[in-house]
């Protein structure tokens, strides 16, 4: 099983060092960020499996960061850590995209159990997802066969076309970050690959044009929004 990658955001150096080392001792790979304004860039570059976010952070609070991550990835597991203990704070955490909420002070055993529980839930959900056949409007997408079928018409897809369509179908009606797409499919976000992505987007739009309810909308400065009406 691959080592799980944890994006850990905490601005208290002493606590951060303890938590990071404790998680690493359990064979997790941990990337620690101390400034809320730097989280999204690290997230896009590093592609973690789970995010553990302190709420009180310099420049951008954890709840705001959680909302931004949720826009990029609707299924990313997020745990909030906070000294706040009001019910309103708990509700704000879940409204901000959190899957779990741990009050400080906490035990490392509790954090580790909750991290692993969320990772197990994501893995189980992924294993239950049928990737052999995906219905998109009037189309049927067969990822393993690299085919997009509409009635009697079968459109053969390249590997990257299929990967791009998989990203959109798993994020229907949710904004997807352009850099995240480039990193997932090409491995980097160079200018050359960015231009390639433009070509692939145009191709997918042509393939899906028979169903007017399906749209790949460009969000300037952000990425794309795959609209399924």
Main β-sheet description? 5 strands, parallel
Helix content: 40-55%
Main structural class: alpha/beta
Mean pLDDT: 88
Query: According to CATH, what is the class of the largest domain?
Result: Alpha Beta
* CATH topology assignment of the largest domain: Rossmann fold
Low-confidence stretches: none
Report the portion of residues in β strands: 15-25%
CATH-derived architecture of the largest domain:
3-Layer(aba) Sandwich
Distance between the termini: 38 Å
**What Rg, in angstroms, do the CA atoms define?**
19 Å
- What's the arrangement of strands in the largest beta sheet? 2-1-3-4-5
Q: In the residues, how many domains can be counted?
A: 2
Give the overall form.
elongated
DSSP helical segment count: 8
Q: Tell how many strands the DSSP assignment holds.
A: 12
What string, H for helix and E for strand, traces the elements in order?
EHEHEHEHEHEEEEHEHHEE
CATH homologous superfamily label of the largest domain: Response regulator
């Amino acid at each position: 099983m691959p080592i799980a990658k944890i994006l850990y955001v905490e601005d208290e150096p002493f606590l951060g060092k303890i938590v990071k080392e404790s998680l690493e001792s359990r064979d997790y790979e941990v990337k620690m960020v101390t400034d809320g304004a730097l989280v999204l860039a690290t997230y896009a570059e590093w592609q973690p499996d789970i995010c553990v976010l302190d709420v009180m952070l310099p420049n951008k609070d954890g709840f705001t960061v959680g909302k931004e991550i949720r826009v990029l990835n609707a299924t990313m597991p997020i745990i909030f850590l906070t000294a706040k203990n009001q019910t309103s704070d708990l509700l704000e955490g879940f409204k901000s995209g959190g899957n779990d909420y741990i009050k400080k002070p906490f035990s490392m055993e509790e954090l580790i159990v909750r991290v692993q529980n969320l990772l197990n839930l994501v893995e189980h959900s992924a294993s239950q997802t049928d990737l052999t056949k995906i219905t998109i409007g009037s189309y049927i997408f067969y990822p393993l066969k690299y085919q997009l079928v509409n009635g009697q018409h079968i459109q053969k897809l390249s590997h990257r076309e299929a990967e791009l369509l998989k990203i959109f179908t798993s994020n229907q009606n949710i904004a997807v970050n352009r850099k995240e797409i480039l990193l997932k499919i090409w491995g980097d976000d160079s200018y050359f690959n960015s231009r390639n992505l433009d070509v692939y987007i145009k191709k997918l739009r042509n393939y899906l044009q028979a169903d007017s309810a399906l749209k790949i909308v460009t969000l300037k400065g952000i990425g794309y929004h795959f609209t399924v009406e």
